[in-house]
Amino acid sequence: MNQPLARALRGAGLDAVDVAAQLGVDPKTVDRWLAGRMPYPRHRAALARLTGWMLRDLWPELPAQVIPDMQADEVRIVYPYRSAVPADAWSRLFAQAQEEISILAYSALFLAEDLAASTILCNKATAGVRVRLALGQPDGAHVADRSAEEGVGGGMSARIHNALVGFSRLIEAGAELRLHDTVLYNSVYRADGEALINTHIYGRQASHAPVLHLRIRSDIGMAATYLDSFERVWAASQERVG
């Protein structure tokens, strides 16, 4: 039996019938793949896209020469909206960090209210991992614009104030906090070599916008572009006093 493929499909919430429908094959064909039969190359590539796993992870027996450029692909998985991200994905992301965690958002209130994730962040900061938190300036012009776009009045500012209270223990644990007044096209949640990127859509809350799970492969490419945006905002932000 192909245990990696079975685990990958379970992790993506897919069964044989789901995969068969998306790939246009008979469910019995998928069962044969799960039993150990090697799919055709086009089906291997499709299964890798569906699960977010690399080809060599799904089929360790593949010779290196049949693995296409997809091996270097930075995109692990794409979620249609943030609320579709598994609840424990944030904890798993931060738990793996050994060197740095960087968060760029307007409020990130959902994380401040996530006890498991916020506890891990505190533990990491206490252990010496560099944790940087860049949140929106509550009275900033762009925060006000974002509130107007979402039709929530002063709701965005209120969420930031609530998040600052929620993250107070994290700050006490040694995390760095800065406030920014910039237009955010994406929120960035980085832990060492991986990042979750929450895109922003006009008139929609961030929880209703897509999320990209990226692997950081090099100093160039998609992930590097998002991380560069974090550094630019961080450099232009102000340390919070009091």
Characterise the protein shown here.
This protein is of the alpha+beta class and 242 residues long. It folds into two domains: 3-62, 434 Repressor (Amino-terminal Domain); 82-239, Endonuclease, Chain A, CATH 3.30.870.10. The chain has helices at residues 3-11, 16-23, 27-35, 41-51, 55-58, 89-95, 109-112, 115-126, 141-150, 155-166, 168-172, 222-236; strands at 75-79, 100-104, 130-136, 176-180, 186-191, 194-199, 211-215, 238-239. The protein has an eight-stranded mixed β-sheet, with helices on both faces. Strand 5 (186-191) and strand 6 form a beta hairpin. Helix 2 packs across helix 3 (27-35) and helix 6 packs parallel to helix 8 (115-126). The radius of gyration is 20 Å and the shape is elongated. InterPro entries: Lambda_DNA-bd_dom_sf (IPR010982). This is XRE family transcriptional regulator. It comes from Paractinoplanes hotanensis.
Task: Summarize this structure as a short list of keywords or feature phrases.
242 residues; alpha+beta; 434 Repressor (Amino-terminal Domain); Endonuclease, Chain A; 2 domains; eight-stranded mixed beta sheet; 8 strands; 17% strand; Lambda_DNA-bd_dom_sf; XRE family transcriptional regulator
